[in-house]
Amino acid sequence: MTPQRYLSALLLATVLASGCATQPPGATRPGALARPAPQAVLRAANLDPALEERILALDPDRISADDVRSTLARAPTPRILLIHGGIYPVHLAMASFGRFLAGMGYPEAMIVDPRDGSWSISPYESSALIAGLLAWQYEHDGTRPIVVGHSQGGIQTVKVLHELAGSFGSELHPFNPHTQTFETPTTIVDPLTGRERPLVGISVAYASVVGTGGWALALPVHWIVLSQVREIPDTVDEFVGYRIGLDLFAWDVPGLEGVKTFYPNGKAIVRNVTLPASYSHVLVPVSADLAASPELRAWIDAFNPDDEAGRAAVPAGDPANLLWAANVWHDIKRHWALEAQRFVRARRALPPA
User: Which of 113, 121, 125, 159 could lock 225 by a disulfide, CB 3.0 to 4.6 Å apart?
Assistant: First the structure.
């Protein structure tokens, strides 16, 4: 058996062991098919003053498991878009990560596709469609989405950021996930300001990629971003690029860090993180079991990438993707809190109805 087939078989067995039944689709929210009136999303939110105060009091860098359960789970929540790798059945790895996020307390309906319940989207999907989907979600949710890409999905993530920046064209159209159609306007009504704005220039809150680059850049579908795949535009607040210390799929090996480093072309916060060489390119997102273990879950909930000295010892067993999952979950919690706070502040600034 070739190494690639072995890894694919191992991936399939791992995900099946953690349960891979089809998840129920996310519920269609009332009015999801219609364009919201200016500031209607803010006014329609079911937030009482006590919950708003708890949201504003959160420290985004230190979100506990109780904060997730008692506050963020009831707060405005960004749509998470997962973009899987391109070789079958690697999409199951991203499905496992989606289950990890749901197991840690993220609302499942804000991860899965609202039509068919799938956990992730293909890296071969149109980047203009994905950009239009992200803009549509922002208009209807009032919180900017989060994007996580694996392997070729990481390339597509960067491509989508450039779509939103206007690198490939001056116009984009919203894409409605419920009707699976593009909408006619090239603008949305900003849910927080109530003003009309073009899709080009809209930003996402956070984007993260792992195992990006390598041989996949030779595929014609990715050529449009070939010269810009390490350049991160201002259409994301924070971007984190994860490389594995030894990754023959992504061509990450010692000595090539300089040419495999992501960098901002403006004000975006960009971080580069090297994961242990023992990590598997194919299996790194397989993480559903981490949320099912009380010990591992507690370690992940307490993880702070900026406080290595205060970090608890890694639990026995040390799963090979624990560090990646903990880092990404910390960042997702952070931007979940920041987007919820942004929403509440805009809601409190509303004029009387």
Answer: 159
